[in-house]
What we know:
The complex is a heterodimer. By secondary structure, chain A is of the alpha+beta class. Chain A is 59% helix and 9% strand. Chain A is built from 37 helices and ten strands. Chain B has helices spanning 25-40, 77-95, 100-105, 107-117, 128-143, and strands at residues 2-9, 14-19, 49-52, 55-62, 65-71, 118-119, 122-123. At the A-B interface, helix 1, helix 3, helix 5, helix 7 and helix 9 of A face strand 2, helix 1, strand 3, helix 2 and helix 4 of B.
Amino acid sequence: MSPSVRLQEMIRVIRSARTQGEERGVIQRECAAIRAQFRQADNGGRSHNLAKLLYVHMLGYPAHFGQMECVRLIASPRYNEKRVGYLGAMMLLDENQDASLLITNSIKNDLAHSSQYVQSLALCTLACMGSAEMCRDLAPEIDRLLRASSSYIKKKATLCAVHIVRKVPELGELFTPAARALLAEKNHGVLHGAVILITELCERNAQTLVQFREAVPELVHIMRGLVTSGYSPEHTVAGISDPFLQVRVLRLLRILGRNNDTASDAMNDLLAQVATNTDSSKTAGSAVLYETVLTVMDIKSESGLRVLAVNILGRFLLNNDRNIRYISMTSLQKIVSTDHNAVQRHRGTIVDCLKDQDASVKRRALELSLALVSAINIRSMMKELLLFLSTCPPELKSHAASGIFNAAERYSPSQRWHIDTILHVLITAGADVRDETVPNLIQLITNASQLHCYTVHKLYRALVADISQQPLVQVACWCIGEYGDSLLQQGECEETEPIQVTEDDILDALETVLQSHMSSPATRGFALTATMKLSTRITENVDRIRSIVSIYGSCMDVELQQRAVEYNALFKKYDHMRAAVLEKMPVMDRSSMGQTNGESGGGGVQELEPTKPKQPEMVVAPQPASQVCDLLDLLGDPDEPSLLGGPLGPGGAPLGPAGLMPGSAGGDLLYLLGGLELTPTPTPATAPAAVTVYDKSGVVLKLSCERPLDASQTITLTATNTSDHDISSLTLQAAVPKNVQLQMKAPSGDSLPARSSAVVTQTVLLNNPNKVSLKMRVRLSYTSQGSPFQDTVQIDSFPTPGL
Amino acid sequence: MIKFVLMVNRQGQTRLSRYYQPVELGRRAALEADVVRGCLYRKKEECSFVEHQDFKLVYRHYASLYIVVGITESENELSVYELVHNFVEVLDKYFSRVSELDIMFNMDKVHIILDEMIQNGHVVETNHSRILAPLSALDTLAHS
């Protein structure tokens, strides 16, 4: 009785279960029954039970208790039971289970069985889950079977040998002679297995590869026989005789011919013959042609053959079957870097595939198109790509946008075209572009100084039309802020239809951006700054600007509030500086923008980080304006200690009076220590943890570093008073080079009693992302015996804490 | 090489599964669900090859069944596409006009056929009569 009958009953019962819970119940009952039956002694239904168990296992339920039953069934003399036992072994056991060792002996016996079906079962199981020890034990048996048995067994033995070679590569030499001899077989099954075995041997071992190169003529002969033979009912699939074997032989030829001229020469004729004679109307023929193309591309073939191969791929591209189109594009992708010109010929078809329905085909076409862009065809390709961008599926949008940007950067014929292209992309796919697009575009615009008028008009129009695309709005606001005066004068630019733009219009547009709920906080920051900049560029509506700015002084968003308050200060107290602060920006170059962007990281936190580094000079310039004045106050009135002790944020204070011009030469303001020598100071090899940096008139200042990480350091300044008089109102101020950020925490106190009875410590946090050589200038000011003192000390070398 | 062969119906129920590279039981369900999701929701105009994680899937749709084969990068997809069709033809020959129920209720026989065709991740035999020879011998043994 075949084991399937009771299995069918059980399957019927399981199928009739209505819910998952019911099914689980049924299966649990069945499993319990099976387990009980296993525990009993030999009964006739063992194979049925194991078959049922395998079905349950396939559904995903645990079935490990069947493993021992498999072992018992394998040892049974009856074929039915052996069959199910071996099937169970292949499905339930793998080499990690202990039970697998127990079947080694059974397999060994069965390999020598008289019935070839039993032998085949054993071979199959060994090939599936044989462990390394089992393979080593049984390898000689397999070798014997490879040489002398029926073809049915030989073909299974070859695949078993493949598994053995994978598990125990050293045994490869054992099988090499047998494999070579098998190439002379007529039976396609055996031949197929032999080719697979040789492929595996060659891939593992380079010497075997060299040996098998001598077999190339034999392989060529086999292929020729297959290609030219007529209809053979046994192996023909859709008019091609044994395409599976053909594909396999071609793959082996590829491995043998790689990097070897003689072997490649021997194959050239054959490959040409296969390429021309194979009928590609059905998939089987296409499969063979595809393998041929891959082989031609990989070996050292002559150029005529390569051109033939690329033409075949081009023909595939026009095929109706989308599978074949996908395949050809995948192959073209692989060869576009080496045979660029040949692929260029098919550019038209590839670009057409951008409009295909299939998402995979579209993706391949996009990648290929981007690879094919060159200086000559940039304009037409870009048109197609931009068209694609407007209709492409969302998962491809960001990839397409960044590809377009790269291509535009490398091959743009003119700056105006470049800016136009980027604007077009921002308008169509603005939400999917990367974060660094905005600063890159800004930098590009500042460089194209003759196009400022044109650019700002275009951006203004885009802004008025649509304010939902954030990168576009950001760039537009920035440009309007910078070049607002060109926007107001029509006469000078080459726009086709100049429009009348009044100051009110511009301010309306910016206010819309500020108030819209679609604008992200970063965008609103841009808009506010732009509004502020316009106060120097326009003449009539300065009051309107003033009122806008003061409204935002009480905004909920901290960043906007801070900006608005500072700008307010610029209007009120520091009106004389406003023009200088808000002057036009100098041309930026790439590297200086790139450095500060390094900190912005992922696109997540939009609020503070991207805007601050993106506009380093703009944001910081107003800040020191207010801080400078604070320091001036301090310098004038040292009796009022400032608890913060020093300037916050990058940059410090100039030591002289306010002879500074922030804004135009923003760099000079920040880089205080420019005049000092920049020789890198050698870090002392063995440095004590705290270094005395200042010792005069009884005040001793010590400096110690913790956490010697490159980017950020914590420095502790300790002040002691060794003189006989108390010191009060002690303040410490520090300045560091540009690009290093400084933050001073509150000091522990501000008075130092005499004779070192107490100390004042102050922690300073330094952040040095660009790893410039670290220097610091510290200014102390204190009052001793009723009179103020001030002194400055410069620290050139920082001690590294002892390890 | 072939990593696995799956037969799934339109509701996502597995009718046949065979793994040629060991995959532990817990991960099998997740893998099958992923693969099925990748294939079942593709429209008719899309091609039969899907790239999934680090291997490729070749699937074919026959009436209510999807046959999905997972292959490694180096394998020729068109060849495997033909192999799937060959497999279905063999099943058709054995069961005379095979349907999903035939496969479900004769799972062990289908496994035997599959073993005759694919062993250890590679193709063994593609000739229909030779594949079915041992099975018919087994049947005659069983009936006699």
